[in-house]
Inverse folding.
Protein backbone atom coordinates (compact mmCIF):
# COMPACT_ATOMS: atom_id res chain seq x y z
CA UNK A 1 0.00 0.00 0.00
CA UNK A 2 1.21 3.53 -0.78
CA UNK A 3 3.13 5.31 1.97
CA UNK A 4 1.12 8.54 2.01
CA UNK A 5 1.04 9.78 5.59
CA UNK A 6 -0.87 11.78 8.15
CA UNK A 7 1.53 13.76 10.34
CA UNK A 8 0.88 14.79 13.90
CA UNK A 9 -1.89 12.31 14.66
CA UNK A 10 -1.84 10.65 18.05
CA UNK A 11 -3.93 8.04 19.81
CA UNK A 12 -5.59 9.21 23.02
CA UNK A 13 -7.63 6.08 23.77
CA UNK A 14 -6.87 3.31 24.35
CA UNK A 15 -3.62 4.62 25.73
CA UNK A 16 -0.55 3.36 23.83
CA UNK A 17 1.10 2.95 27.23
CA UNK A 18 0.80 -0.68 28.43
CA UNK A 19 -1.68 -1.09 31.26
CA UNK A 20 -1.16 -3.29 34.28
CA UNK A 21 -4.75 -4.47 34.08
CA UNK A 22 -5.40 -7.15 31.42
CA UNK A 23 -7.98 -6.35 28.74
CA UNK A 24 -10.72 -8.99 28.32
CA UNK A 25 -10.73 -10.55 24.81
CA UNK A 26 -14.22 -9.18 24.01
CA UNK A 27 -12.98 -5.66 24.68
CA UNK A 28 -9.66 -6.03 22.85
CA UNK A 29 -8.03 -2.72 21.97
CA UNK A 30 -7.58 -1.52 18.39
CA UNK A 31 -4.15 -1.89 16.77
CA UNK A 32 -1.30 -0.18 18.60
CA UNK A 33 -0.17 3.30 17.66
CA UNK A 34 2.41 3.33 14.85
CA UNK A 35 6.06 2.99 15.80
CA UNK A 36 7.76 6.24 16.73
CA UNK A 37 4.93 7.82 18.71
CA UNK A 38 7.08 10.87 19.51
CA UNK A 39 6.62 11.93 15.87
CA UNK A 40 3.81 9.73 14.57
CA UNK A 41 3.40 9.32 10.85
CA UNK A 42 0.29 7.31 10.12
CA UNK A 43 0.29 5.58 6.76
CA UNK A 44 -2.93 4.77 4.94
CA UNK A 45 -2.30 1.13 5.79
CA UNK A 46 -2.02 1.91 9.51
CA UNK A 47 -5.22 3.93 9.40
CA UNK A 48 -6.93 1.07 7.55
CA UNK A 49 -5.78 -1.35 10.25
CA UNK A 50 -7.02 0.99 12.97
CA UNK A 51 -10.45 1.26 11.34
CA UNK A 52 -10.76 -2.34 10.13
CA UNK A 53 -14.22 -3.86 10.38
CA UNK A 54 -14.60 -6.32 13.25
CA UNK A 55 -14.66 -10.05 12.64
CA UNK A 56 -18.28 -11.20 12.73
CA UNK A 57 -20.09 -14.31 11.50
CA UNK A 58 -20.03 -14.72 7.68
CA UNK A 59 -22.90 -12.92 6.01
CA UNK A 60 -23.58 -10.74 9.06
CA UNK A 61 -23.79 -7.03 8.23
CA UNK A 62 -21.94 -4.42 10.28
CA UNK A 63 -23.23 -0.87 9.85
CA UNK A 64 -20.99 1.98 10.89
CA UNK A 65 -21.82 5.66 10.62
CA UNK A 66 -19.36 8.44 9.88
CA UNK A 67 -20.33 11.97 10.84
CA UNK A 68 -18.75 15.27 11.85
CA UNK A 69 -20.08 17.65 14.51
CA UNK A 70 -19.11 21.14 15.59
CA UNK A 71 -18.41 21.90 19.24
CA UNK A 72 -21.95 23.22 19.58
CA UNK A 73 -23.53 20.15 18.01
CA UNK A 74 -24.09 21.18 14.39
CA UNK A 75 -23.89 18.47 11.74
CA UNK A 76 -23.28 20.99 8.97
CA UNK A 77 -22.74 24.65 8.21
CA UNK A 78 -25.00 26.27 5.62
CA UNK A 79 -26.11 22.85 4.45
CA UNK A 80 -22.69 21.26 3.96
CA UNK A 81 -20.35 19.30 6.21
CA UNK A 82 -17.12 20.44 4.52
CA UNK A 83 -16.74 23.67 6.59
CA UNK A 84 -16.51 21.51 9.73
CA UNK A 85 -13.92 19.14 8.27
CA UNK A 86 -10.11 19.05 8.01
CA UNK A 87 -7.46 17.33 5.93
CA UNK A 88 -7.16 14.56 8.53
CA UNK A 89 -10.94 14.16 8.66
CA UNK A 90 -11.09 13.82 4.88
CA UNK A 91 -8.25 11.28 4.94
CA UNK A 92 -10.14 9.15 7.45
CA UNK A 93 -13.32 9.69 5.41
CA UNK A 94 -11.49 8.19 2.42
CA UNK A 95 -10.14 5.26 4.44
CA UNK A 96 -13.59 4.42 5.79
CA UNK A 97 -14.96 4.40 2.26
CA UNK A 98 -12.08 2.27 1.03
CA UNK A 99 -12.86 -0.38 3.65
CA UNK A 100 -16.60 -0.56 2.94
CA UNK A 101 -18.53 -2.83 0.59
CA UNK A 102 -21.25 -0.20 0.27
CA UNK A 103 -21.81 3.41 1.32
CA UNK A 104 -25.41 3.99 2.44
CA UNK A 105 -26.71 7.53 2.08
CA UNK A 106 -30.02 9.37 2.12
CA UNK A 107 -31.46 11.00 -0.98
CA UNK A 108 -31.35 14.51 0.49
CA UNK A 109 -27.64 14.15 1.24
CA UNK A 110 -27.06 12.99 -2.34
CA UNK A 111 -28.74 16.15 -3.58
CA UNK A 112 -27.05 18.56 -1.15
CA UNK A 113 -23.53 17.14 -1.27
CA UNK A 114 -23.49 16.37 -5.00
CA UNK A 115 -22.63 12.70 -4.56
CA UNK A 116 -20.59 10.98 -7.25
CA UNK A 117 -19.64 7.31 -7.64
CA UNK A 118 -16.94 6.01 -5.33
CA UNK A 119 -13.65 5.77 -7.17
CA UNK A 120 -11.08 3.03 -7.27
CA UNK A 121 -8.04 3.89 -5.15
CA UNK A 122 -4.79 2.21 -6.05
CA UNK A 123 -3.57 2.45 -2.44
CA UNK A 124 -6.34 0.05 -1.38
CA UNK A 125 -6.55 -2.16 -4.47
CA UNK A 126 -4.60 -5.10 -3.04
CA UNK A 127 -6.39 -4.91 0.31
CA UNK A 128 -9.83 -4.94 -1.35
CA UNK A 129 -8.88 -7.76 -3.69
CA UNK A 130 -7.63 -9.86 -0.78
CA UNK A 131 -10.92 -9.27 1.03
CA UNK A 132 -12.93 -10.30 -2.03
CA UNK A 133 -14.34 -6.80 -2.51
CA UNK A 134 -15.14 -4.89 -5.69
CA UNK A 135 -12.56 -2.29 -6.80
CA UNK A 136 -14.68 0.43 -5.19
CA UNK A 137 -17.64 0.44 -2.82
CA UNK A 138 -21.14 0.63 -4.18
CA UNK A 139 -23.29 3.63 -3.27
CA UNK A 140 -26.70 2.67 -1.84
CA UNK A 141 -29.18 5.55 -1.89
CA UNK A 142 -32.16 5.31 0.47
CA UNK A 143 -35.22 7.06 -0.94
CA UNK A 144 -38.98 6.61 -0.68
CA UNK A 145 -39.95 9.04 -3.46
CA UNK A 146 -37.01 8.33 -5.81
CA UNK A 147 -36.96 12.07 -6.56
CA UNK A 148 -33.46 11.92 -7.99
CA UNK A 149 -31.73 12.91 -11.22
CA UNK A 150 -30.89 9.59 -12.81
CA UNK A 151 -28.77 11.26 -15.50
CA UNK A 152 -26.07 12.06 -12.92
CA UNK A 153 -22.76 10.14 -12.96
CA UNK A 154 -23.74 8.47 -9.67
CA UNK A 155 -26.20 6.39 -11.69
CA UNK A 156 -24.66 6.34 -15.17
CA UNK A 157 -20.92 6.00 -14.50
CA UNK A 158 -20.26 3.95 -11.34
CA UNK A 159 -17.59 1.25 -11.21
CA UNK A 160 -20.08 -0.79 -9.19
CA UNK A 161 -23.81 -0.33 -9.94
CA UNK A 162 -25.53 2.11 -7.59
CA UNK A 163 -28.27 0.60 -5.47
CA UNK A 164 -31.56 2.35 -4.79
CA UNK A 165 -33.18 1.20 -1.56
CA UNK A 166 -36.87 2.01 -1.55
CA UNK A 167 -40.29 0.57 -0.75
CA UNK A 168 -42.08 -1.88 -3.01
CA UNK A 169 -44.89 0.65 -3.48
CA UNK A 170 -42.58 3.51 -4.51
CA UNK A 171 -43.64 5.22 -7.79
CA UNK A 172 -43.39 2.57 -10.50
CA UNK A 173 -42.29 5.06 -13.16
CA UNK A 174 -39.39 6.25 -10.99
CA UNK A 175 -38.33 2.66 -10.29
CA UNK A 176 -38.34 1.98 -14.04
CA UNK A 177 -36.32 5.14 -14.72
CA UNK A 178 -33.75 4.12 -12.11
CA UNK A 179 -33.34 0.67 -13.63
CA UNK A 180 -33.06 2.15 -17.12
CA UNK A 181 -30.21 4.36 -15.86
CA UNK A 182 -28.38 1.27 -14.61
CA UNK A 183 -29.25 1.34 -10.91
CA UNK A 184 -30.21 -1.77 -8.96
CA UNK A 185 -33.54 -1.22 -7.20
CA UNK A 186 -34.07 -3.16 -3.99
CA UNK A 187 -37.12 -3.10 -1.73
CA UNK A 188 -36.88 -2.66 2.04
CA UNK A 189 -40.55 -2.61 2.89
CA UNK A 190 -43.89 -3.47 1.30
CA UNK A 191 -45.22 0.11 1.30
CA UNK A 192 -43.73 3.25 -0.19
CA UNK A 193 -41.57 3.97 2.85
CA UNK A 194 -38.26 2.30 3.63
CA UNK A 195 -37.99 0.17 6.76
CA UNK A 196 -34.50 1.08 8.07
CA UNK A 197 -34.34 -2.08 10.21
CA UNK A 198 -34.33 -4.18 7.04
CA UNK A 199 -31.66 -2.28 5.12
CA UNK A 200 -28.45 -3.88 6.49
CA UNK A 201 -29.68 -7.45 6.02
CA UNK A 202 -31.03 -6.60 2.57
CA UNK A 203 -27.68 -5.21 1.45
CA UNK A 204 -25.93 -8.24 2.95
CA UNK A 205 -28.08 -10.42 0.70
CA UNK A 206 -26.51 -8.53 -2.22
CA UNK A 207 -23.01 -9.29 -0.93
CA UNK A 208 -22.47 -6.04 0.96
CA UNK A 209 -21.79 -6.75 4.65
CA UNK A 210 -19.24 -4.03 5.49
CA UNK A 211 -21.57 -1.06 5.47
CA UNK A 212 -20.84 2.63 5.94
CA UNK A 213 -23.49 5.32 6.23
CA UNK A 214 -22.61 8.99 5.78
CA UNK A 215 -26.06 10.20 6.70
CA UNK A 216 -27.62 12.52 6.52
CA UNK A 217 -28.87 13.12 10.04
CA UNK A 218 -32.37 11.85 9.31
CA UNK A 219 -31.15 8.52 7.95
CA UNK A 220 -28.63 8.10 10.76
CA UNK A 221 -31.40 8.75 13.28
CA UNK A 222 -33.57 6.12 11.63
CA UNK A 223 -30.82 3.51 11.73
CA UNK A 224 -30.10 4.30 15.39
CA UNK A 225 -33.79 4.09 16.30
CA UNK A 226 -34.08 0.74 14.50
CA UNK A 227 -31.20 -0.68 16.53
CA UNK A 228 -29.02 -1.45 13.50
CA UNK A 229 -26.33 1.22 13.86
CA UNK A 230 -23.48 -0.92 15.17
CA UNK A 231 -20.76 1.71 15.25
CA UNK A 232 -20.40 5.48 15.06
CA UNK A 233 -17.24 7.19 13.86
CA UNK A 234 -17.74 10.76 15.04
CA UNK A 235 -15.35 13.61 14.30
CA UNK A 236 -15.59 16.43 16.82
CA UNK A 237 -14.56 19.62 15.04
CA UNK A 238 -13.01 22.46 17.11
CA UNK A 239 -15.41 24.95 15.52
CA UNK A 240 -18.61 26.69 16.63
CA UNK A 241 -21.28 27.50 14.06
CA UNK A 242 -24.36 28.72 16.01
CA UNK A 243 -27.43 28.88 13.77
CA UNK A 244 -30.13 26.24 13.48
CA UNK A 245 -28.27 23.34 11.83
CA UNK A 246 -29.49 19.89 12.80
CA UNK A 247 -27.58 17.51 15.04
CA UNK A 248 -25.96 14.41 13.58
CA UNK A 249 -29.22 12.52 14.20
CA UNK A 250 -32.55 14.03 13.26
CA UNK A 251 -35.27 11.77 14.64
CA UNK A 252 -37.95 11.80 17.34
CA UNK A 253 -36.49 11.50 20.81
CA UNK A 254 -36.00 8.01 22.20
CA UNK A 255 -37.87 7.02 25.33
CA UNK A 256 -34.60 5.64 26.71
CA UNK A 257 -31.25 6.92 25.37
CA UNK A 258 -29.30 4.36 23.39
CA UNK A 259 -26.00 3.29 24.92
CA UNK A 260 -22.76 3.24 22.96
CA UNK A 261 -19.31 2.42 24.31
CA UNK A 262 -16.10 4.26 23.49
CA UNK A 263 -13.78 2.17 21.33
CA UNK A 264 -11.00 4.58 20.32
CA UNK A 265 -10.00 8.25 20.08
CA UNK A 266 -7.44 9.82 17.76
CA UNK A 267 -6.47 13.52 17.69
CA UNK A 268 -4.90 15.88 15.19
CA UNK A 269 -4.89 19.68 15.13
CA UNK A 270 -7.62 19.82 17.79
CA UNK A 271 -9.96 17.48 15.89
CA UNK A 272 -11.05 14.39 17.82
CA UNK A 273 -11.75 11.24 15.82
CA UNK A 274 -13.86 8.99 18.01
CA UNK A 275 -15.33 5.53 17.56
CA UNK A 276 -18.24 4.18 19.55
CA UNK A 277 -19.87 0.75 19.37
CA UNK A 278 -23.46 0.01 20.25
CA UNK A 279 -23.75 -1.77 23.57
CA UNK A 280 -24.32 -5.41 22.68
CA UNK A 281 -23.06 -5.08 19.10
CA UNK A 282 -19.45 -5.51 20.21
CA UNK A 283 -20.19 -8.75 22.08
CA UNK A 284 -19.80 -10.87 18.97
CA UNK A 285 -17.20 -8.70 17.28
CA UNK A 286 -13.43 -9.00 17.53
Amino acid sequence: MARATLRGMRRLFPSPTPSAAPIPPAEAAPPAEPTGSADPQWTLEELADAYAYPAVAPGTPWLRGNMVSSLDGAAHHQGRSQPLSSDADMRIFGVLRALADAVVVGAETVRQEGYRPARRREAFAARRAAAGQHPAPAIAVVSASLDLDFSLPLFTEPLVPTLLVTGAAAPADRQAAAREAGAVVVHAGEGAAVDPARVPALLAEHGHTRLLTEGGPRLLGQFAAAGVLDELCLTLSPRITAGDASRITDAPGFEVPLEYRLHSVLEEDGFLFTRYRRAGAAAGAK
